[in-house]
Please model this.
Amino acid sequence: MNVPMKRRSFLGGIGSAACAGALGLGWVAATTEQARAFERLDRRERERLADLAMDMARRAGAAYADLRICRNSWQEVTVRERRLDWSESGVLVGFGLRVLIDGAWGFAGSATVDEASLRAAVASASESAAAIRRLGAVPVVLETLQSHRDDWTMPMAEDPFAVALGDKVDLLTRVNDAALKGGASFISASADAAKEEKFFASSVGSLIEQRRVRVAPSFDVTVIDRASGRFGGRHSLAQPRAAGWEYVRGLNLVAEAEEAAQQAREKLAAKPVEPGRYDLVIDPTNLWLTLHESVGHSTELDRALGWEANYAGTSFVTPELRGRLQYGSALMTVLADRTQAGGLATVGYDDDGVKSDSASFAIIRNGIFENFQMAIGQAHLIGAERSNGCAFADGPTTFPLQRMPNISLQPNPDPTSLDDLIGGVENGILIVGSGSWSIDQQRYNFQFGGQLFYEIRNGKRGAMLRDVAYQAQSQSFWNAMDAVGDRSTWQLCGTFNCGKGEPGQAAPVSHGAPAARFRNINVLNTERGDL
Model:
């Protein structure tokens, strides 16, 4: 196949916009010298550097210290209208060192991993801790931490970084061909991949090696009615996954792209929705994002304590509401889990060194709010005994923040199909695929769009609709859920790049959800702007 190509060097620098789409918010790729130096770091040398760092930290007065030595790799490939539009890959290497001195965190890192850089980092982190103490910050109190020695590797069959660029371009070109055959005016198809390799050591004796990979195949189809000037579109329903390239091969993106183009054409002729109150049946490809924004973010403890107020906002869920807040209907149980197969946040240990299989927990059980997500040093602030494995740093030189594990709405244990959910609706709308969204700073008032919308009349799915968005408040929405689909309706969805923090970091996270039914939800027409 003769495909025009535009390629960038493997270790070249990239801009923050491109990087945010892959792993981080503003990464700069490692230099060739830094990457080669990292290659020379075998396990014995990493452990020697860790011992040195822990000894220097103790001498500096640290009650606790940890060190992460990491290599993060990424690749992005995009084909637009049968031409290779973008090909970018790179690596980021380095280390991050934390010290806890007199109840204050200090942190420093470097892209160069050697003894001199490590000595400088201990001095800099100690100075940072002293500065924070002088500011009078709330002291950090750590729970008793467990020591772990382990080597964890995510299972996969085919490393996406070993797949030839030409093979990826060929697949994406076939996706383009199928969409154009289906009637698309424009088509862009992408395949992104990321790999994390982390060595973690702590002053409590942990020595942990971890490796994981994730892939994100996607496409965007646009159709134009040149007579009216109107356009419609459909984004791929394929989801990112912690998996090898075998996952991408098994998706049949080519068939989906042709169908998506046809559905986008159908949108142009679809009836605009009449604003009003409707019963909604929401597919997991849409509901995962509502779960992420209205439950995932609102139950982050640092947000609830006001630590993210300057950037990411606060939360209507406050510590005194644990065990008391009726978050949703009795059908609503939401679990946090870093062991979920294929989950983007799945890993053996979080970036605090907390073991994942001992940190799964219920955020909401039978509609009642139970637990916040926590990193180490936070639990005592709400009277809890320990954290629950929710720390992540998106690069070697970034500080671990409290970030979401995989957070999933549990399916109905009793047989309940999508048709069963639709069958209980007289006047409603079926919503498929995630679209535009907005939510306030307290994660309370929100509005969500989607990709595909269908009338439901007298228990039957009808014609396609367009210009649909639903509005609600988090509590009222989840309390309006009167039916949940079974495991056959459940799907694992998610995102590569949930943003948070200053400086900004991006975290991967998955959300599983069944289809679910919600009664009497406000729907607006997005084209008319009617409420």
Observations:
- The domain at 16-166+191-214 is CATH 3.30.2290.10 (PmbA/TldD fold).
- The chain is about 20% helix and 35% strand.
- Confidence is low (pLDDT under 50) at residues 1-25.
- The first helix runs from residue 16 to 20.
